[in-house]
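Entry, Tuesday afternoon. Goal for today is a structural model of the target with zinc ion bound, before we commit to ordering more compound. Inputs were pasted exactly as handed over by J.K., no edits. I checked the ligand SMILES twice against the vendor sheet because last time a stereocentre got dropped in transcription.
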Amino acid sequence: MKYKVWVHIEQVDESLDDYQDIGEPISIGEFGNLDDAMKLRDKLIGTVDTACPKCGADSNQREFVDRRYLDCEAIQIIYTCKGCGSEIIEEFTLSEVFIDRKE
Ligand SMILES: [Zn+2]
């Protein structure tokens, strides 16, 4: 069993009830297990499942701040913990998950 994570762009005009797919969906990762696939999805949409390292507040106690792309090789997701105010950075390396990468 394989699990793929897809990115898909849709153009939406709700007033006309018009929905158009832009291009084809592309797979941005392929995994041998569902947990890893869900981890990538959650990272991309800015949710993580880990407690704050400083105060232990859980992941719904933090506020999404920004998403930084580092040379298309890694994504950093930055949060502020609402419990203690500290900055939490989750880094995720894309090259680790690309199976069809060119090198
Ligand atoms: Zn905290």
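The chain has one domain: 3-96.
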